[in-house]
Design a protein that fits this description.
kinase; five-stranded antiparallel β-sheet; membrane; 28 strands; 776 residues; Beta-Lactamase; Multi-sensor signal transduction histidine kinase; extended; alpha+beta; protein dimerization activity; five-stranded mixed β-sheet; single chain
Length: 776
């Protein structure tokens, strides 16, 4: 079927002006190959031919030996677009990347055995893993699996040869390279035994200076059916992934073989004697089976009819967010014709669901153990209108495919009912219940009229020692009970409520008839009755016991915070002492041990191969211990703190950028006064915790860290462009990092502010007051 992207007038005009596009290709199998007639073939070539046909332009193929040559050509303006690239921080300066269209995993390959799938985290030290280095997979395994013994090779073929020669236990290759090498007969004994969890997300890249072409590519790519990408993968990367039956042990296979022989012999003897009876039974069974098939077919038609006429819409979505199935209920809800929803991306129903967010949602639902997540969204119908829907997600495996099942329920009426309920609750908000306290009503007859106490409950006698009639006098009222020191706040809050015809809240001290001081809480609800008439229904609570407990709790918290600050200071001092001892004492011992090992190697080198191997192993272990000592000392107290908080922050941000590959922008002042150790360490620990949260939860593409001095305060801000969150919806027990940062700032006498909205990133700002001599 021809692709029909929905280009606007400006895009069609641009394509008409550019009938030929220069396509940059990296010549590497199976992506780009030259056939016997010198014609270009390969996965990327077929993909680009399909997309360029949809655009209505012709290709001008440009071949390059590697990515560096391609990027130089793009910088020089010799290439318009290129397929099959991965998004990198450096590449963002040259290319504009499309959404991923293909995931190429990195697979673990080894000899066939009955041990099951390989867990890299549990791999013993005597087993080595070979892979091409430098490569993305090598950097990933060195960073995430420190227990592995890696052996670098110059190519994927060399890694497989090392496995065949039993020099290493396993090799790591990407799916594209493995599909070519496994076609060779000498590698037929190898099989896939695992996945390292690092897929290559392949994208289409256009030059940064051609924004219009980027939009054209995105529009064309959206119209490409997902089944064509699956056929492209099956054509150029045909692999058979291991099934659970591939790992059956030899002993079990042998036992099954002999058991099968015995069964075949017994069955042959039995069938000779019972052939006639079996034929008769077979005929009856065939008739019964035919009846069952007819019943099953009827039940299937009935089930399909029930699903199509259900009030719940059902969608099957593939990993690439394209729809594979939609029942008639979903089509009617969204206003589409039968079959029109198939192969459409889910972002057409929810425009805010971009590919990265969809993959995160896919992963979260796939790993969900209990229940299925549900939420409420506004779906986009075919006519452009919005339909509020309750969405529930469930993960489904069907044969060899995986889907996310989306259940849609139209909640338009529920929203209307909810709005009506909220309005009803607001109307009856002033009705008081049978609760202890002083219930009263204030009334105003019209604009500018005097506000009177229309009602005060008889509980006033028991609560404050005055009868209701006494308090209802115009010169008395509740204000006559207010403590003189709190009278000003009482009158101000009452005046604001009366002038604004709004609810009235006040909390303060009152005096009873016996001059006993009580803490009181006043809460009223305003109900405008029209023509300037307003009624305030309220209640005065005796909160003395709770208030005294609150004041005692505040005092206790202040003392606990002082104790926590002291303990934090002692812990940081202990960390610094341990770091010095680990670095100095262990460093000296390891240095002597390294010298002794070197002396042994000089004396015994070449005499005993086993001894040489042991000495080499000892040298590797000593080097690992050196690195471990440095890492432990740095984790306890980074030495860079002695150079000042600005240098420490810049060092920590660069380490985070190297570890996560997330581009970071850091801005620190050149001249900053020296901070006390407690403040410097506190700001540094807050930065560490903030960056850890970005790495674990934000899903950010970039981070900005800024340190500046503002008057007598020092400010630190960490801004990311991740998925964000609602700070008001933090669940208890799931935000200890944020609580720890807030407590640390309170101990330092500072403030911590967190601004975030779902889908709009997060901004964290920490501010501490500098000491007077430092600020000056």
């Amino acid at each position: 079927m021809p692709l029909r992207p929905a280009f606007d007038a400006e895009q069609r005009a641009w394509l008409k002006e550019h009938p030929v596009l220069r396509v940059g290709l990296i010549q590497q199998a199976p992506w780009v190959l030259r056939g016997q007639n010198r014609q270009l073939t390969g996965a990327n070539v077929e993909l680009m031919q399909r997309l360029l046909e949809g655009m209505g332009v012709a290709p001008d193929w440009r071949l390059y030996p590697n990515l560096e040559a391609l990027e130089r050509a793009a910088s020089a303006g010799e290439v318009d677009l290129a397929p099959g690239l991965q998004q990198t921080p450096a590449g963002l300066r040259i290319w504009h990347y499309s959404m991923p269209y293909l995931r190429v995993p990195h697979l673990v390959v080894g000899e066939r055995s009955g041990n099951g799938a390989v867990d890299l985290d549990q791999l013993p030290l005597e087993q080595m893993v070979a892979l091409r280095s430098p490569s993305q997979a090598a950097e990933y395994l060195e960073r995430t699996h420190t227990n592995l013994r890696l052996r670098a090779t110059s190519s994927e073929r060399s890694a497989l040869l090392l496995v065949l020669n039993q020099e290493v236990s396993y090799a790591v290759l990407d799916e594209a390279s493995l599909s070519l090498l496994l076609r060779e007969s000498r590698f037929s004994s190898l099989s896939i035994v695992g996945d390292i969890g690092l897929p290559q997300l392949l994208r289409l890249a256009t030059r940064r200076d051609q924004a219009l072409l980027s939009g054209i590519v995105d529009q064309t790519l959206k119209t490409l059916p997902a089944r064509e990408l699956e056929e492209l993968r099956d054509t150029w990367m045909p692999l058979r992934y291991p099934q659970s039956t591939d790992f059956v042990g030899f002993w079990k296979t042998l036992a099954l073989f002999f058991g099968l022989l015995l069964m075949l012999g017994a069955t042959a003897l039995y069938r000779q004697r019972q052939q006639t009876r079996l034929l008769e039974r077979g005929l009856l069974g065939a008739r019964g089976e035919l009846d069952r098939h007819q019943q099953a077919a009827e039940a299937l038609r009935l089930s399909q009819f029930s699903i199509d006429h259900s009030t719940v819409g059902i969608l099957w979505v593939n990993w690439d967010s394209h729809l594979r199935y939609a029942n008639r209920a979903a089509e009617r809800m969204l206003g589409y014709a039968p079959g029109e929803l198939v192969d459409k991306p889910l972002s057409q129903l929810e425009p805010g669901l971009h590919m990265d967010r969809w993959l995160n949602l896919w992963k979260r639902v796939r790993e969900q153990d209990e229940g299925s997540p549900s939420f409420e969204v506004d779906c986009l119908r075919a006519d452009g209108s919005r339909m509020p829907a309750d969405v529930s997600l469930s993960f489904l495996r069907y044969r060899q495919a995986e889907y996310l099942v989306v259940f849609l329920s139209d909640v338009t009426e529920r929203r209307r009912a909810r709005a009506a309920l909220e309005e009803s609750e607001a109307r009856f908000k002033g009705i008081a219940g049978n609760v202890p306290g002083l219930v009263f009503r204030l009334e105003r007859a019209g604009p500018g009229a005097v506000v009177n106490f229309a009602y005060i409950s008889e509980a006033s006698q028991e609560m404050v020692g005055w009868p209701a009639q006494e308090l209802q006098r115009e010169e008395r009222g509740i204000r006559s009970l207010v403590h003189p020191q709190d009278l000003s706040s009482y009158l101000n809050s009452q005046t604001l409520a009366l002038e604004g015809e709004s609810d009235w809240y006040w909390q303060g001290r009152i005096l009873t008839a016996e001059q006993e001081m009580l803490w009181a809480d006043i809460r009223t609800t305003a109900r405008p009755l029209g023509n300037g008439r307003v009624v305030w229904d309220g209640i005065l609570w005796d909160i003395t016991e709770n208030k005294l407990a609150e004041l005692a709790l505040a005092d206790s918290r202040a003392r606990l915070r002082e104790l926590s600050a002291h303990l934090e200071s002692v812990r940081e001092e202990e960390k610094a002492r341990i770091a010095r001892e680990v670095h100095d004492e262990l460093g000296q011992v390891l240095t002597v041990l390294k010298l002794e090992t070197a002396m042994c190697e000089l004396v015994c080198a070449g005499q005993m191969p086993e001894l040489d191997e042991r000495l080499a192993s000892m040298k590797r272990l000593i080097a690992q211990l050196f690195q471990l000592v440095r890492d432990v000392a740095t984790a306890l107290r980074p030495p860079i703190l002695d150079a000042g908080i600005a240098s420490a922050i810049e060092w920590q941000v660069r380490r985070f950028e190297e570890r996560t590959q997330i581009p970071c922008l850091v801005e620190v002042p050149e001249h900053l006064p020296h901070l006390p150790d407690a403040q410097a360490i506190g700001m540094f620990r807050i930065l560490q915790e903030a960056l850890t949260n970005v790495m674990r939860h934000a899903g950010a593409h970039s981070v900005e860290v800024r340190l500046w001095q503002e008057g007598g305060s020092l400010c630190l801000s960490v801004v990311d462009d991740g998925k964000g969150f609602d700070p008001a919806l933090r669940k208890p027990g799931q935000s200890f990092g944020l609580v720890g940062m807030q407590e640390r700032m309170l101990m330092l006498g500072g403030q911590l502010q967190i601004d975030s909205q779902p889908g709009e990133g997060t901004t964290l700002c920490a501010r501490i007051n500098l000491e007077e001599e430092i600020a000056a």
